[in-house]
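Q: what sequence does this backbone want?
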């Protein structure tokens, strides 16, 4: 049986955060949900009200023998604007903020190193503001949010483009799927 580990990343709208991870060998499952807040079992409407403290996030179950946490971090950074503390692209507000949630000291250290390397790279002209936080309970989002890019591919692609995310990632990363 494969060894399994968990990573949780908040990158704005969770619809746009599933597909980039879902296609990598070693990623076993990507689930949309809510984390970081204080209300148990929040609904989408509650999270959107910005009264629960939660962010939209993805929980990634992966086989560390096939894909490393460092590789997942590299994929994560390529999906977001790490300089925007007010949300992501079209989606504004605290529930759309970015964050890395760690489970172990090793994950925390790798996330810090990755963030520092990105900051030192000069790729962005503003500070990297994505926080690195201890993991809190993760609550699955409603079923219609799960694997949205597969369930509603045309709407997903329109949203991904119209939100500004696709243009931003192409401009800053060249649209490449490769992990450096």
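A:
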């Amino acid at each position: 049986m494969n060894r399994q580990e968990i990573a949780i990343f908040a990158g704005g709208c969770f619809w746009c955060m599933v597909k980039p991870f879902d296609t990598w060998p070693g990623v076993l499952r990507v689930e949309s949900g809510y984390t970081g807040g204080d209300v148990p079992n929040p609904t989408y409407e509650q999270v959107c009200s910005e009264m629960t403290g939660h962010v939209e996030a993805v929980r990634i179950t992966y086989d560390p023998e096939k894909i490393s946490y460092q590789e997942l971090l590299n994929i994560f950074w390529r999906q977001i604007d790490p300089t925007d503390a007010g949300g992501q692209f079209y989606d504004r507000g605290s529930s759309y903020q970015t964050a890395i949630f760690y489970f172990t000291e090793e994950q925390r250290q790798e996330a810090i190193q990755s963030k520092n390397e990105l900051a030192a790279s000069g790729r962005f002209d503003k500070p990297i503001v994505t926080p690195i936080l201890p993991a809190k309970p993760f609550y699955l989002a409603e079923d219609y949010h799960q694997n949205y890019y597969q369930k509603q591919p045309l709407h997903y692609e329109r949203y991904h483009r119209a939100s500004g995310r696709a243009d931003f990632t192409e401009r800053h990363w060249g649209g490449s799927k490769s992990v450096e």
